[in-house]
Amino acid sequence: MTVSPVVLIGAGLVGASIGCALTEEGQQVHLRDLSSSHARVAAGLGAGTVDEPVAADVRLVVVAVPPAALAEVIAGALRDYPNATVTDVGSVKAGVLHRLWESVGDRAVLERYVGSHPMAGSQRTGPVTARADLFVDRTWVITPHRRSGEAGIAAVRELVKLCRAREVVLDVEEHDAAVARVSHLPHLMSVLMAGRLTEVEPEQLQLAGQGLRDVTRIAGSDPELWQQIVGANAHALLPELRAVQLRLDDLISAVETAQQTPGRTDGVRTELERGLAGTRRIPGKHGSAPRDDAQLVVEIPDSPGALGRLFAEIGEAGVNVEDIAIEHDQVREVGYLTLAVQPTLADGLVATMRDRGWEIRQARSEV
Amino acid sequence: MTVSPVVLIGAGLVGASIGCALTEEGQQVHLRDLSSSHARVAAGLGAGTVDEPVAADVRLVVVAVPPAALAEVIAGALRDYPNATVTDVGSVKAGVLHRLWESVGDRAVLERYVGSHPMAGSQRTGPVTARADLFVDRTWVITPHRRSGEAGIAAVRELVKLCRAREVVLDVEEHDAAVARVSHLPHLMSVLMAGRLTEVEPEQLQLAGQGLRDVTRIAGSDPELWQQIVGANAHALLPELRAVQLRLDDLISAVETAQQTPGRTDGVRTELERGLAGTRRIPGKHGSAPRDDAQLVVEIPDSPGALGRLFAEIGEAGVNVEDIAIEHDQVREVGYLTLAVQPTLADGLVATMRDRGWEIRQARSEV
């Protein structure tokens, strides 16, 4: 099957990567971008051509522009390409649909709109890093609305297939609720915690450890983009934020009880246990169930070559490293590397690495 | 100067490591632990002896037991060793002091108590991984109270010096406020977020990414220990939690506004900007100011030896890796490794690594 010719509006990483994937599969792709240099860079990378198509021939339009511009660009595409299915790759769906519903005079036209959302592993801006295989085996959510036509849904399914992604069909509200919970809420929790640091004295921050860094990492992301995402998903985010608000009230009551009656910390324990249970529900790597890897801690000198030597010797030992994290000592020129390995391999690896002169130990519970 | 003979109560990682450090410096250390096997293991590692000292000769007692037991064990030590300075290594100070104040009949005795808190890089349980150099160049906070005697303070400063840690003196309230802000509050924010996941459907969790994993990582820690820590620092934690509660109210109002009036997201932007500003206040590695490293993303096959080859070749290129993070593809057998390097070295490294066949790219802004 074919969806050719395709028009791609927005030649950033996601758009240009779709262009590369479709071009590889023999589809004709026409690139459009407000920045003509973006479109030209994407074309140079094999994402398609900057030539204009014959509008009436276009079968599929993929809109890959920032969240705030989506509704307008989609409406424009429905007008400009009267025979095309139009989809988008936005990370929030309901608001866009609502605005289309209000702004598009002839609602029958909306039969040709079917939203979608590829969960690309890393969303970086700009076409320079585009890759045809960005979506291979990634989840790509298709979000038909109640007026989406069968032909349009089929075209978007074909798009997902051509990009070799894994198709998941959710309705618009289900999708927005899912990303509100597992992506947008964690982002705002990180922002709340990081925001509190603006009122902390520098001396106090000297006591900061890896935990604080982990919790606040994503709060360092681009506020411009997140302003659009949060604005677009306000509807689905509000119940999540209010649920956290209630839970925070409970937690504060529990801590107040602990303060008033020393030893009465069972309420606090309940919250901590719930948190632990929540972490265990997050799927592990490769989509598998969470697993208890053994954690090994190695001291590594902070110099070129040290990590290379370390991993070369781990490789020689035939052990696959499942996960990795580094913590730098604030003062000494060393880092502590935590390696996750299969539990059955841990003891042997510790012995081998010690023989080779590494400071290595099995980690127990972590505070 | 000497603090010998020393009694160490609690032969876990922190206690046994103090024993090793003091023994190396020629101090006589006597180990006590509720678990006699813990004490023997620690002695076997060079942390001291399990023999009883002459109680009246003891100059310094270091109490390294779980938070809930601290006050009682300190009070016991003040009784048992009538001429000794008594310190502890607990992560919360005011509650313990308060309980001592209430429980110790003869308050003059409290002259001999001076609290302290070594910020060991990784707090793992059990003596097996004890190391004499655990505290080298780490911050070790000394928290005298208003009745602490000069001789006691001098003895604890000597302890810190013998362990080669960096002495910081804070009063009890300052210390507890600092750890509430930079350690205990982030922990509870992580717990709140992770707790919310207990109500999320498994299909929704399939959309989870690295951001969620980072924010919830520390919520996977031991609830037993954190129950004690939160209970002990309830007083300092409450204002932090209430500040977050107010900020969350503001955030919810801002998101409500964004929902009611699409486009009115300036309130949301304010919160996002505050979060970004907060992340920039966290000190970088080696206690230096935060720095903008260049971020490179490399695709690595998920097989033994791949990381070894990668780091060996980075080492040959003479580039020091400042930080490292790994993200596993949920389905494909590859990982994406993010490397932070000095910005001036990034372009050269990318070129070199590409020549050697690695898929490597410079990351832009991250969502």
Automatic annotation (TrEMBL), chains A, B:
Gene Ontology MF terms:
NAD+ binding; prephenate dehydrogenase (NAD+) activity; prephenate dehydrogenase (NADP+) activity
Family statement drawn from the similarity comment of this UniProt entry: Belongs to the prephenate/arogenate dehydrogenase family.
Recorded protein name is: Prephenate dehydrogenase
Domain ACT positions:
295-367
Keywords of the record, alphabetical order, are:
Amino-acid biosynthesis, Aromatic amino acid biosynthesis, NAD, Oxidoreductase, Tyrosine biosynthesis
Recorded catalytic activity of this chain's protein: prephenate + NAD(+) = 3-(4-hydroxyphenyl)pyruvate + CO2 + NADH
The cross-references to Pfam families, in alphabetical order and at most eight, read: PDH_C, PDH_N
InterPro entries listed in its UniProt record: 6-PGluconate_DH-like_C_sf (IPR008927), ACT-like_dom_sf (IPR045865), ACT_dom (IPR002912), NAD(P)-bd_dom_sf (IPR036291), PDH_C (IPR046825), PDH_N (IPR046826), Preph/Arog_dehydrog (IPR050812), Prephen_DH (IPR003099)
Q: In which pathway does it act?
A: Amino-acid biosynthesis; L-tyrosine biosynthesis; (4-hydroxyphenyl)pyruvate from prephenate (NAD(+) route): step 1/1
Organism per entry: Microlunatus kandeliicorticis
Under Enzyme Commission nomenclature, its number is 1.3.1.12
Q: What is the lineage of its organism?
A: Bacteria, Bacillati, Actinomycetota, Actinomycetes, Propionibacteriales
Please give the Gene3D superfamilies that the UniProt record associates with this protein. 6-phosphogluconate dehydrogenase C-terminal like domain, NAD(P)-binding Rossmann-like Domain
UniProt record, GO biological process: tyrosine biosynthetic process
Q: Domain Prephenate/arogenate dehydrogenase spans what residues?
A: 4-285
